[in-house]
Amino acid sequence: MARLSARQREALVAVAETALPAGAWIPAAGAETIDKLEHFLAQMPAAMERGLVGLVAGLDAAAFLAHRRRFAGTSPAQRLALLERWRHGDPVRRLLLRALIAPLKLAHFDDPALYRKLGCVYRPELPRAEAKPAYMRDRVHGALTEDLAVECDVVVIGTGAGGAVVARELAEAGVAVVMVEEGKYFERSDFTGRPFEMQSKLYRRGGSTFSVGNVPIPIPLGQTVGGTTTVNSGTCYRTPDRVLNEWVTELGLAELSPEGLGPSFDRVEGVLGVEHAKAEFLGGNARVIARGCDAIGLKKHGPLRRNAPACDGQGVCCFGCPTDAKRSTNVSYVPLALRAGAELFTSSKVTRIILEGGRAVGVVATSDGHVLTVRARAVVVAAGAILTPLLLAAQGLGGGSGELGQNLSIHPATGALAEFDEEILPWKGIPQGYSIEDLHDEGILYEGTALPLEFTVSMTQLIGPRLVKLAEGFDRVASFGFMVEDSSRGSVRSVMGQPLIQYWLQDADVAHIKRGLDVLAQVFFAAGAHTVHVPIAGHDVLRGEADLQALRAAKVRAWDLDLSAYHPLGTARMGRDPARSVVGPDHEVWGTPGLYVVDGAAVPTSLGVNPQVTIMAMATRAAGKIATALS
What are the sequence ranges of the domains in the chain? Predict the structure, then answer.
């Protein structure tokens, strides 16, 4: 049954036809686009559909005020003019238009015929299913069919960068471990490489988690065995020494010095097979970035270190690796934990931590209407920096310092698209395989970003014929991104059972983002780009030095930017002082013996680099602390 009413469908078809018209060979969007959108909405939280319906109603109201007709009843020229007014309007209208058009772009350009015309691979050839070893068959348990109670030494909530590592290290030390994961366990044969399809399967709320503040920032979170490691880019940076030294001198965390954590970093990188991306898979993006860097005198650029030694450059890292080349925890640490004797319960959401005499002694989870009870000698919470503080706060745990759910850093990120006259073929190669580190000491780290067609066109606010022209030249489009080591901080709390993430981007970070885009545009122009698209309202299309000069002179505010973020950290931060932190140096929650936080929430400050290796190294160390406490 259709989720949208006939009137709502009519309005959305009119929006799609206007924003995504026919090009030289790309057909116009229309009813088929809305059919695909409805299918997507059927798999998403109901709030997304309600939001879309509200946006349509707002557009109808605007059309009626201007023309005394609903949007679908106005002429094509009036429709386009109205959408363009919103695109160039105040921050609220720009945001509303982005929220309305982005899913239409994803639905319309997710088309195998368009991919064939461009020469892209629409769907990678999926490998045949491999026979599972006995421990993968016998120790992985899906949705329950009845209530179940089990006992172990340590129960671990979550299987991402923190939880999976703790589970493996403890299991190999002879500790009886049970992992509890809210998501499902997908295999590589499930990873189709199609963003529209995999987004609803692998991401929490279909990737619709975001912060609110002076600029909304999407913060996609994985919800699957492997957590966000399953859908990240595979980039592996160690924590910069300067950050670790600050933790030692300013926070008193002496064991987290570069020397102290060095053996844990070594162990993690050995498991992940960390190495520099291979030159033959860097692709056209890296080629033009290297050329542009050389032209303007940037020196510190080259291949990134990644956890995918067998990568063949299929280009869909963020939607599940179809070859298992990326050693995310679903194919590395989780199987190692299972082989060592750990048990895994998937599709199980932990709702309560069991306390006896103030000590954590287990968890209760729900699984397909049934109850899973796990009794344990210790509990490890590794649900991530957004969900971990909510689970603790729901039971009044970890809140003594007032820091629980506070101190959120996210590494705000953005990027630019560049149009060239030469072939780039952005779909060939590693999406994030190259970096520029010249500005890293300033807090700006560039890392390559290449996404499938439908996501790439969503990175620009263009609509109408100009957007379609960009899409038809996708083979000559390059993209690159960066993140900033944020000084801004946010918070997370629960509202009606869902995380409310508040984050206000401060002027210093806005300045970093503006500078980052300026330098990136310079790199692209020096490499031969004729047009650069940047996500700054009023300056979104740059065609040369004059436009760059205008951007430099402009006052850019937080709400002028389109941003995203992928690295939430710090919401249950570690410290030596119980009055200023949530967990101690051993990861144990102050005031609750037997309860540990081992994930990005415990990371004390913003890192300025991708955090998975940091979280894994800290988890490796934490496992030793927990094992000693249990002995």
Answer: 6-109, 139-234+237-267+321-407+570-630, 276-306+413-485+506-560
